[in-house]
Amino acid sequence: MHLVPGGPWDQEKQLAPQVVENLNRKYHLDKPLVIQFGSFLWNAVRGDLGVSYSYQDRGVTQILLTGLPITAGLGITAFLIAIIIGIPLGIAAALKQNSTIDYISVLFSTLFANIPGFVLGILCIILFSVTLHLLPTSGWGSIKQVIMPAVALAALPAAYIARVTRASMLEVKRQDYVRTALAKGLASRVVIIRHMLRNALIPVMTIAGPELAALVAGSFIIENLFSIPGIGRLFVQGVQARDYGLIMGIVLFYAFAVAVVNLVVDIMYAVVDPRIRYE
Amino acid sequence: MAIAAESIRPHRSLWTDAIIRLRRNRFAVAGAVIVFLITISAFLVSIFSPYGYDQQDLDAILQGPSKAHPFGTDVLGCDVLTRLLYGARTSLAVGIFAQFIVLVIGIPIGAFSASASSRVDNLIMRFVDVIYAFPDILFIILIRSVLGGSIYMMFLAIGLVAWVNVARLIRGQVLFQKQRDFVIAARAIGASENYITVKHLIPNSLGPVIVAVTFNIPRAIFAEAALSYIGIGVKPPTPSWGTMIRDGYDVIFAASHLVLFPAVAIAVLMLSFTFLGDGLRDALDPRLRR
After folding, report:
1. Banded pLDDT at A253 (limits 50, 70, 90)
2. Which residues of A touch B230 (CB under 8 A)?
3. Which residue from A67, A153, B70, B144 could staple onto A78, CB 3.0 to 4.6 Å apart?
């Protein structure tokens, strides 16, 4: 990162060399890189991600904490939407294979799995903000401002979830225990929920982890498109301002978040599927 | 080889079979046709377009679609269709050239990992896992902030992130192919390990790699558009769909076509490559077909 030409003190007005030197000393930028890195790691472990060079009044940890609830709120809303749309669509498609709803489901998942959320967001803005004047284009706070970014972000995981749910439901449908359950006279609703769904959702959970990571990546662009002051937007601003402190802090934070999400998914596996046991 | 030539059935290679199957797949054909058309028009735009991509007509700014300008004009009075087609050059260049870097890094590392000791193999694969689990775009932005500006660095940044797919695939393929009879036969007649890797293992793994590359192209196209959109992609005046969206977004209420056309172009190009990839996958691996 330090290889990039330019530094955090590059502004429109040229600073005096003495000033730059003092700033470098204050933030320990005059020390060798190895020492800078070592002290950064040590502080990060203690929860202090160091200073941001463009926000003089707050540390990186505080900046992250202001963005985190917004990004997390957007991400969780989008993920819930994805589940609410994806799973029922996948189930309906599998139960009535080769029906109209099945074709709609396949079309939906093919289209939205391949159109980036960012393009979808733009199309939404053109339709709902520019043409119909229904929803605001940017900002964060009211429900109206959440709808479009959350839906744009949810489309991709919803498509994947629908596709995987459909495939695994079709697989489960042919299993002997499902036939047995139906043969002994259980209501089809009970069989669907208790026998089929519980088994069919395991592959869906496998993709939930990577999907959450993809959601995070998608939120970088979506937050910028809709001017949402979350972590993704902070990161992009940090890159543009060459704010090493902020960039490093956010990257470290994301690595940590991805690791935690994967761990949670692994634990959830064992909860859903009693056959999986960790030693 | 002599024996193969004398066989009675007319020789049809895997590839001939694959092309026949590919041509039966309507979506794949449509994808291929669209990719082909966009590529050709992007190449020829400098010949048939009466406008240059940076040629301004200040008497005709922000016009809607018309006869002279089928897709309208932008804030500076440039022809949007012309800029779109020049932008397609950028998108296609990034999408395709990034894959060369992916192959140059991914194939050797995957092949090496498969034939290395289990310890080294494990080490490489855990490293691959780490890159794989991390959001692509974040990594690309990070590498980009290290490597800096030019479009070649963009190929490199995308390639440096996307090679893990191919490395993983090649490793799996090599481990699988190694157990097949013709490899064991080659080893039995005394072929060296390197010879087997280059002559048998890699060529036989090529099908899945082509499929993976086809699926990687739309991701690279998206990465380029997204980076250009947030302002750290290709630098103006090089036209890019991402930059066009960024510039058009400021005047979206006055002229939404400036944002609409590039956005749709990104979606169409990405979808076409994906359909083509789906078709190739089904064509190259008949066992997968339902």
Report:
1. confident
2. 220-221, 224, 236
3. A153
Q: Is residue B6 part of a domain?
A: no
Inter-residue contact A112 to A155 (CB < 8 Å):
yes
Count of domains forming chain B: 1
d(CA A140, CA A257): 23
Best CA proximity match to B267, nearest among A122, A103, A148: A122
Beta bridge partners of B79: B73
CB-CB under 8 Å, B245 with A130: no
| Cβ contact B230–A224 (<8 Å) | yes
Q: Which of 211-250 (A) contact B at CB < 8 A?
A: 213-214, 216-217, 220-221, 224-225, 235-236, 239-240, 242, 247
Percent of chain B with pLDDT over 70: 83
A37: number of Cβ within 10 Å = 12
**A5/B135 Cβ within 8 A:** no
In this prediction, residue A3 carries a pLDDT of 47
Residue B21 domain-assigned (yes or no): yes
A230 burial type by CB count under 10 A (0-12 exposed, 13-18 middle, 19+ buried): buried
- CB B28 within 8 Å of CB B78: no
* pTM recorded for the entire structure: 0.78
Cross-chain Cβ contact A115/B270 below 8 Å: yes
Structural domain contains residue B7: no
The answer to the question of residue B2 being in a domain is no
Residues of B in contact with A8 (CB under 8 A): none
pLDDT at B77: 66
Provide the token pair at B50.
Answer: 């009466």
Using the predicted structure, report yes or no on whether residue A215 has a pLDDT greater than 70: yes
Q: Give the domain extent around B96.
A: 15-45+53-288
Distance from chain centroid for Cα A235: 14
As a residue count, chain B comes to 290
Share of chain A above pLDDT 90, in %: 0
